[in-house]
Write a structure and sequence with these properties.
CATH architecture of the largest domain: Sandwich
CATH topology of the largest domain: Jelly Rolls
Radius of gyration: 20 Å
Shape: globular
Number of domains: 2
Oligomer: single chain
CATH superfamily of the largest domain: Regulatory protein AraC
Order of helices and strands: EEEEEEEEEEHHHHHHHHH
Number of strands: 10
Distance between the termini: 39 Å
Strand content: 15-25%
CATH class of the largest domain: Mainly Beta
């Protein structure tokens, strides 16, 4: 895996680009751990391609955005283009064992949308577009699925190393299965947060579900669950990798896409129904997250 380092300004982290050579398969698997020989960047940096980091054994820390997170068994970090990974130290992942899987979008086939923001509409790439989340999205692989995840990644790594006849098709199949697993976990994250083990977050998402069609701010959500906005912000971001406002916007966009696809309502009316009285602001927000206007999305997906 060869990469190119770009620094746009002295106060911005470096960005690493991956431009595969002609004929090169743009999928890479890297071991992660205290003694793993990873030929990677130890500075704060981001990538312009997606990846995941899965840990079968916990220990140590990872730095994503401005957060320092303790690594636990079953942790799955979804790293989207532009997500900043903090400066790494040699002992960060003491006792942890895991794998990083990185790829470019064209590894999923020639019809995969190239523009990052248009991935929101792709069934396997939508977890890598999160509208400004402050670091990698953290998901949890259930204990009963962890052996299966390790087996999948080992099989992918074996195909890339051995390059037996048909390995390209095998790599593609293993990658798709991994991303199906990521997509399912990402889609289930809201339901997971509603469980009794997370009563505060369950309340937060109940408030969002009831009130997203109307103007709704962080301060109003915090008042509804009787805690300070600062405490709410830190709790939700630590547990989910997103802010309360990003979750409100995400819920609104889910409904907006549904209405665009199955109704003939005008764009301005859809905006009003999902909490955007200002049609222009709705269109700008939708365009920023999807890479196209609501009208263009409707033509493509209606």
């Amino acid at each position: 895996m060869r990469s190119r380092r770009t620094v746009l300004s002295a106060d911005q982290p470096a960005t690493y680009s991956w431009r595969p050579s002609p004929g090169e398969l743009s999928v890479a698997v890297l071991p992660l751990g205290h003694d793993a020989g990873v030929d990677g960047a130890h500075e704060a940096h981001s990538h312009d391609f997606p990846g995941i980091a899965y840990f079968g054994a916990g220990g140590g820390i990872v730095r994503t955005g401005k957060q320092v997170r303790t690594v636990e068994a079953g942790d799955l970090f979804v790293i989207g283009p532009g997500d900043v990974m903090g400066r790494a130290h040699s002992d960060d992942l003491v006792d942890a064992r895991g794998w990083g899987v990185f790829f470019t979008a064209d590894a999923l086939g020639p019809d995969t949308p190239a523009a990052h923001l248009t991935w929101r509409t792709h069934p396997l790439l939508f977890p890598f577009v999160r509208g400004g989340a402050a670091g990698a999205l953290r998901l949890k692989v259930p204990p009963e699925q962890r052996d299966e995840w390790s087996t999948r990644i080992h099989a992918l790594d074996d195909e890339l190393r051995q390059r037996r006849d048909g390995y390209r098709d095998a790599v593609s199949a293993h990658l798709v299965l991994l991303l199906v697993g990521v997509s399912r976990l990402a889609a289930d994250v809201v339901g997971d947060l509603r469980e009794n083990a997370e009563p505060l977050l369950a309340e937060v998402f109940d408030v969002i579900e009831r009130r997203y069609p109307e103007p709704l701010s962080l301060r109003e959500v915090a008042a509804a669950v009787s805690i300070s906005p600062g405490h709410l912000t830190s709790t939700v971001r630590r547990r989910t990798g997103r802010t309360v406002q990003e979750w409100i916007t995400e819920r609104r966009m889910v409904q907006a896409r549904r209405l665009l696809a199955v109704t003939e309502l005008t764009v301005s009316e859809i905006g009003r129904q999902v909490g955007f009285p200002d049609a222009g602001y709705f269109a700008r927000t939708f365009g920023k997250l999807h890479g196209m206007s609501p009208t263009a999305w409707r033509r493509t997906n209606g």
